[in-house]
Write a structure and sequence with these properties.
- The complex is a heterodimer of chains A (310) and B (381).
- Helix content of chain A is 75%, strand content 2%.
- In chain A, helix 1 runs antiparallel to helix 13 and helix 8 runs antiparallel to helix 9.
- In chain B, 22% of the residues lie in helices and 34% in strands.
- Chain B contains 8 helices and 20 strands.
- In chain B, helix 2 packs parallel to helix 4 and helix 3 packs across helix 4.
- The chains are: A mainly alpha (310), B alpha+beta (381).
- Chains A and B meet through helix 8 and helix 9 of A and strand 6 and helix 2 of B.
Chain lengths: 310, 381
C-alpha cells in the first residue's frame, strides 16, 4: 500500500516537472512570435530609415543614393552624408518645427494630465454603477476612427461650421470666429483625441491602490487636500507617468491633427516630415527627421523607466 | 452585574470607582447602511489608560465601531465623547485619535522616518522636535536605526512595529488597533502580545483593540467587551468574562464549555439546585440571582473544572457517569470526550501529569465525572 502511494507521488512529481518544463518552452515559443514581429516590422524598417538618413537625394527611383558600394580593389566604400542631421540642427525651419512640436506636445500633455486626472479621479470616486457607464463613455471615443473624429471637429469649428453658424444666427457675433487654423486648435484637437490615453492608466492605478492609505493619512491628521498631494498623487505617479508618456509620444509626431486643424503656417515636425517625403521627395532628409523624432520619443520613456526602478 | 460576589480580591480598579470619569464615552451609538445595522445602540465607558478589547466574530460590528471612533464612519445616532469633548461630528483628521490598521497601511513611497514624520508634520512640530519624537518611538518599538528603510524592506513583525510607532508618535488620547497581531505568525504573535502590553503601560495611552482572537483579548486586556450582532453582550475583566459568562453565547464564544438544559427545583439563599436529564443528576450551583423554582435554565461547566475518576463519588449530588469515547492528546493537556447515559457528550480536560498509558481509564471505560458546585454556572439566557 505504502509502496504504491510513493510511486504514485513520484510519478506525479515528475509529471509536474515535465509539465513545468513544457510550460517554460511554451513561454519561449510564445515570445518568439512577438520578437520576430518587432524585428521584422519595427527594427528592420528602422535600420533602413537609419541607413537612408545618411544618403543623398537624387532624382531617381528610389530617390536616394546607395551609401554602400564596392570600389576598385574590393574596397567597401561607405559614403555617409551628415548634411541632413546638420540641417536639422542648423536650419531654422526644422528647428522651429521641432520646437513647435515639443511645446505643443508638452502643452497638450499638461492639459491631458489636468483634465484626465480629474476625470480619472472622478470616475474612481463615483459609485460602481456610474463607474462602468463613465468608463464606457470614455472608451466610446475609440469606437470611431480618429480621422473621422477630427473631421467632425473641423465641421463643428470651421468658419461655416456648426458653432459659428449657431453663434451668427443667434446674433452674438457678426463674422465667424477663426477657431481652426492655429496652434490652439491643434492643441485642443490633440487633447481631445489623446485624453483617454491619460484617463485609463491613471484610473487603473487609482482603482488598484488600497484606500486604507487615504484613511491612514486622514488618521494621521492630514486634511483631504494634503492627503491628495502627499499620498494620492505620489501613489498614482506610475499611472500619471504612463499616461504622460503615451500622450507625449503620440502627439509629438502627430501629422493628421496639425494638417487638418492647423493652418498653413502651423509648422510641426510631423508635417515637415510628410512634406519632405511626399512633396520634396527628399527621403534622406525625411529619414533624418524621423530619427531625431524617435530619440525624443524614446528619451522620456527611458527617464521614466530609470525613475520607476528606484 | 449578575454576580453576587466578587471572586477575586484586588485593589479597586478605575472602572469600579464610581467617582472616576470615563475617558472615552460611547453613548447609544448605532450605525445603519440601508437595511443593515452593524452597530446597534452600543454604549461603553472606557477609562484612561485602559487596554480595552472588542471581541467578536467577524461581522459582529466591532470593526465598524472602531471606524466610528476613528472618524471614518459617522454614527447614524448616538454620541462619542473623548476626554469630555463631543467629537461625533469631527472628521478623522481632527480627532485626537490614531489608528493602527490591520494592513498597517504604511505609505509605500515613504521611508520609516517619513512615515512617522508625516503625522507629526501635520501637528506643525519643528524639525528637531520631530527628530526627537521619531527617535523615541523607534526606540520604544526597538527599531532604532531603521529610519531609512522603505516598508517593502521590512519583515511583517517590523512593519507591525513601525505602524505602532507611527500611530503612537502623535501621542493620541486614544489609540485604536484593528486586529494588531492578526498578520503575525503564532510564535511572534504570542511574543508581541506581551510587548504590546508593556508599551501600552509605558506610554499610558488608552488602547482599544479589535480582535477575533479570544486568547489574545484575554492576554492583553484590562477589560473586554464581547460583541455579537452589533450589540455588546458582556463587558468585564477577562477573568470574570471567562468564569462568569452572562449568557450561553458568551460562555461558548470565550473558551469551551459544556451546557446542559435543566430546571430549578430548589432555590435557597446561597445556592440553587437544578435537575437536568441531560446530565442525569441533581446539581448544586452557586447562587446567581433571581431564578425562580420551575424555571428552565442552562447549567454550564467548563471542561477544566470537571474531574474524572474511576471511583464512584460518595456524595449524592454533582456527579454523573459516562463512557470515554475519545481522547485528544494535545501535549500539555488531554481532552476527554465522555458520553453520558443521556447520549450527551461532555468535554473534560486533564493536565498531562501522567503519561496517557499510565492512566487507569482509557477508551470505552466507565468513568465518573464530578465538579465543585461553585464551578457550575446557571445561565438564564
Amino acid at each position: 500500500m505504502k509502496q504504491t502511494s510513493t510511486t504514485f507521488s513520484t510519478s506525479k512529481k515528475s509529471r509536474l516537472r515535465s509539465f513545468c518544463e513544457k510550460a517554460k518552452s511554451v513561454k519561449f515559443y510564445m515570445a518568439i512570435f512577438p520578437i520576430l514581429w518587432i524585428l521584422l516590422f519595427f527594427i528592420f524598417p528602422l535600420l533602413i530609415i537609419f541607413k537612408i538618413s545618411f544618403a543623398e537625394p537624387v532624382a531617381a527611383m528610389p530617390p536616394f543614393t546607395e551609401i554602400f558600394s564596392w570600389g576598385h580593389d574590393q574596397f567597401l566604400q561607405i559614403r555617409l552624408n551628415l548634411h541632413n542631421y546638420f540641417s536639422v540642427i542648423k536650419d531654422s525651419y526644422y528647428v522651429s518645427a521641432f520646437l513647435n512640436s515639443v511645446v505643443l506636445s508638452l502643452a497638450s500633455t499638461a492639459m491631458c494630465f489636468l483634465l484626465g486626472f480629474m476625470m480619472a479621479y472622478g470616475i474612481y470616486k463615483v459609485e460602481d454603477r456610474l463607474k462602468t457607464l463613465l468608463l464606457l463613455l470614455v472608451s466610446l471615443s475609440f469606437w470611431t476612427s480618429f480621422l473621422i473624429r477630427i473631421y467632425a471637429w473641423m465641421n463643428l469649428f470651421s468658419a461655416h461650421g456648426f458653432v459659428n453658424s449657431l453663434l451668427m444666427k443667434s446674433g452674438i457675433i457678426d463674422s465667424p470666429i477663426q477657431f481652426c487654423g492655429n496652434y490652439y486648435a491643434v492643441c485642443c484637437g490633440m487633447v481631445f483625441c489623446y485624453l483617454p490615453f491619460m484617463i485609463f492608466p491613471v484610473y487603473a492605478v487609482l482603482e488598484k491602490f488600497d484606500k486604507t492609505y487615504i484613511e491612514a493619512a486622514y488618521d494621521l491628521g492630514a486634511s483631504p487636500a494634503k492627503t491628495f498631494w502627499k499620498v494620492t498623487i505620489p501613489l498614482a505617479k506610475h499611472g500619471i507617468a504612463a499616461g504622460c508618456i503615451l500622450v507625449f509620444a503620440t502627439s509629438i509626431g502627430e501629422f493628421v491633427i496639425p494638417e487638418l486643424l492647423g493652418g498653413s503656417d502651423t509648422v510641426m515636425f510631423g508635417r515637415v516630415l510628410w512634406a519632405e517625403f511626399f512633396n520634396n521627395l527628399d527621403w534622406p532628409m525625411a529619414c533624418a527627421l524621423a530619427m531625431v523624432m524617435m530619440i525624443f520619443i524614446i528619451l522620456p520613456v527611458f527617464v521614466f523607466k530609470k525613475k520607476a526602478n528606484i | 452585574m449578575a454576580l453576587a460576589t466578587q471572586p477575586m480580591k484586588r485593589n479597586i480598579e478605575v472602572w469600579q470607582d464610581v467617582n472616576a470619569d470615563p475617558y472615552i464615552q460611547i453613548e447609544n451609538v448605532s450605525k445603519s447602511y440601508g437595511d443593515v445595522t452593524p452597530v446597534k445602540d452600543v454604549s461603553l465607558s472606557i477609562y484612561k489608560g485602559e487596554l480595552f478589547s472588542l471581541l467578536g466574530r467577524s461581522g459582529c460590528g466591532k470593526t465598524t465601531l472602531l471606524r466610528i471612533l476613528a472618524g471614518f464612519e459617522k454614527p447614524t445616532s448616538g454620541r462619542i465623547l473623548i476626554d469630555g469633548v463631543d467629537v461625533t461630528d469631527w472628521p478623522a483628521y481632527k480627532r485626537p485619535v490614531n489608528m493602527m490598521f490591520q494592513s498597517y497601511a504604511l505609505f509605500p513611497h515613504m521611508s520609516v522616518y517619513q512615515n512617522i514624520a508625516f503625522g507629526l508634520r501635520q501637528d506643525g512640530l519643528s524639525k528637531s522636535a520631530i527628530d526627537d519624537r521619531i527617535k523615541d518611538v523607534l526606540n520604544l518599538v526597538q527599531l532604532s536605526g531603521f529610519d531609512d528603510r522603505k516598508p517593502d524592506q521590512l519583515s511583517g513583525g517590523q512593519k507591525q512595529r513601525v505602524a505602532l510607532a507611527r500611530s503612537l508618535a502623535k501621542r493620541p488620547k486614544l489609540l485604536l488597533l484593528d486586529e494588531p497581531l492578526a498578520a503575525l505568525d503564532k510564535k511572534l504573535r504570542e511574543q508581541t502580545q506581551f510587548e504590546l502590553v508593556n508599551i501600552q503601560e509605558r506610554v499610558g495611552v488608552t488602547f482599544i483593540v479589535v480582535t477575533h482572537d479570544q486568547e489574545e483579548a484575554m492576554t492583553i486586556s484590562t477589560r473586554m467587551a464581547i460583541m455579537d450582532d452589533g450589540k455588546i453582550r458582556q463587558i468585564g475583566v477577562p477573568h470574570d468574562v471567562y468564569e462568569f459568562p452572562n449568557s450561553r453565547y458568551v460562555s461558548e464564544f470565550v473558551g469551551n464549555i459544556n451546557l446542559f438544559d435543566g430546571v430549578v427545583v430548589e432555590h435557597e439563599l446561597d445556592h440553587v439546585l437544578i435537575e437536568s436529564h441531560e446530565i442525569d443528576c441533581f446539581c448544586y450551583a452557586a447562587h446567581t440571582g433571581a431564578v425562580p423554582i420551575g424555571s428552565n435554565v442552562t447549567l454550564a461547566i467548563r471542561p477544566e473544572k470537571i474531574m474524572i475518576s474511576t471511583l464512584k463519588p460518595a456524595y449524592p449530588r454533582n456527579w454523573t457517569q459516562g463512557i470515554v469515547k475519545e481522547i485528544a492528546y494535545l501535549g500539555d493537556i488531554s481532552i476527554y470526550y465522555v458520553q453520558l447515559n443521556s447520549g450527551k457528550i461532555v468535554m473534560a480536560t486533564l493536565p498531562n501529569l501522567l503519561r496517557l498509558s499510565d492512566r487507569n481509564f482509557k477508551w470505552d471505560d466507565v468513568v465518573y465525572l464530578f465538579w465543585r458546585s461553585e464551578n457550575s454556572l446557571v445561565l438564564t439566557s
